[in-house]
Amino acid sequence: MSQTLAMEWQKLRPFGKTSRTVALTIGLAVSVSAIVAAAMASSASRMTLAERASFDSIGISLQGVNAAVLAITAFGVLCMTREYSTGMIAMTFLAQPRRLRVLGAKLLTHATVAAIAGVGACLAAFAVGQALLGAEGLGNGWSSAQLPGALSGGVVYLVLLCAWGVALGGLLRTSAAAITWMASLLVVAPVIVQILPPTVVHRIERWLPSQIGSGAMSAHADPHLFTPWVGLAVLGGYVVLTLVAAAWRMARTDP
Amino acid sequence: MIEVRQLTKRYGPHTVVNDLSFCVKPGRVTGFLGPNGSGKTTTARMILGLTEPDAGIATINGRTYRQLRRPLCEIGALINAGAVIPGKTAIDHLRWLAAANGIKRQRADEVLGMVGLEAAAGRKIGGFSLGMKQRLGIAAALIGDPPALIFDEPINGLDPEGIRWIRTFMQDLAAQGRTVLVSSHLMSEMALTAADLVVIGQGRLIAAESVEAFTARADSSVRLRSPQLEEIAVALAVEGASLWRNGDALEIVGFSIEQIGALCARVNAIVYELSPQRASLEEAFMQLTAKVCEYVPTQPNSRLPTQREAAA
Q: What is the ipTM of this complex?
């Protein structure tokens, strides 16, 4: 297994390209968080006292992570589809004929990069968000007891979605199909669900990956969503199911 | 040594490889010949564990590909030189292969030098010509210094200089005692490169023998020129020879030169030329695979019926 890991690690080198993915993930998180926080700060003067009291400083500061997931998911998807679309997967299987080890190694190496990018993205987005909100007296996040939970929730969310990308890429094998599915689940599904009647929304919403992510990174519990760690466990379930399907297809059908 | 025993692969109703058995010995270049679609690539992929056979087994030194612990050090393969990520540099492509089987890093530079690509080490593969990609593919096959090698259609799309380079390169590898299996649909190329042949048609084994033995199987004809062709032709036909007119000469099959000479003397015919016509590997291949060719084009210039035939 160590050689298979060495192979996949070596494929991520030279790190120029990989570090661009990390930079893109952090950049997206920071810029979207900055926009949302700045917008909130500008309307702070019109807030009532009650609104100020219930203001989710942590959740707003981490809004950018929802954009960063797109970059980290594509990173996971491409590690599989790039090889299947060029045919290079055959070379990979010549070097390591035990295909499930290849899947495992890709998962581990990419999850590692996603964790590094995730820690960077969550911390940077949070810091920038707090700085902008702090100017209006809304930056009370640093002292919050919920902060460690929200930050680690954000990192786990990013790592899980990267792993989901790897699994979906292995299952579908083409970049277009896998990225369309991912974008539909993360971006389109939440919009469509909002059109439904409220009673239906409350029942469905909690199963959406994007809502699980928001729930995990928020300081306030939403009664219609899963609690943060239950939500992430549900998301982990999706990832495991997709991985099983991908492993089955990888082992059974020839590249 | 590469051994294939009763290998069978079906795709739906098509049996692509049918009960195929052969053995590739070390120290010689073995040509793997067959028309397009005869199952060469599928067989190579089954030996390499990329395609699961429906029946039979392929082994490399007694073990299947999936049983090999460091496969790149046991058998090298060039199956599709274009199957690389275009954004990677040549050296990075070889480095991940080396890492995959615990091969030392410098070996990537070594094999690039062996195929004459050291100057292109840092260039992206996407900008490589077909010939350079083939060389890189060969470098990748050699990364683990394996005692056995499989090259699938290595000369496709190469210029004459590249073809000659690959030919001598493969012969050198065999001379070092390695097992070398080269698939091709170009018979003339195999006549120059290979010592042994494995010939298949529609997934079945047609022949597995030396190039000489294979060529000898084809019908060799005798060419005869004479001012009395008609008399000789009649006499030969009576004796049961099959013959046809070729310009001002007669081509005879099934009789030796001695027999024909004696017969000409019997009918008192003057003979200008009596010469053996050796079948080439190409002809031998065409004759032996004619019956099993899958895609035979209809003759484009087949003779139209003459007016008289049409009227009749």
A: 0.85
Nearest CA in chain B to A89: B83
Nearest neighbour of A88 by CB, restricted to B48, B83, B102: B83
Task: Name every chain A residue with its beta carbon within 8 A of the beta carbon of B16.
Answer: none
Interface test with A, best of B85, B142, B151 (most A CBs within 10 A): B85
Alpha-carbon distances of A238 from A161, A165, B121, rounded to whole Å: 10, 11, 42
Inter-chain residue contact A94 with B85, CB threshold 8 Å? no
Q: What is the pLDDT of residues B140-186, one digit of tens each?
A: 999 999 999 999 989 887 888 888 999 999 999 999 999 999 998 88
Residue range A218-236, pLDDT digits in tens: 877 788 888 889 999 999 9
pTM comes to 0.83
Q: Do A94 and B71 touch (CB under 8 A)?
A: yes
- Residues of chain B found within 8 Å of residue A9, distances taken between Cβ atoms: 99
Q: A68-80, pLDDT tens digit by residue?
A: 999 999 999 999 9
Contact between residue A141 and residue A59 where contact means Cβ atoms under 8 Å apart: no
DSSP3 helix / strand / coil % (chain A, rounded to 5): 80, 0, 20
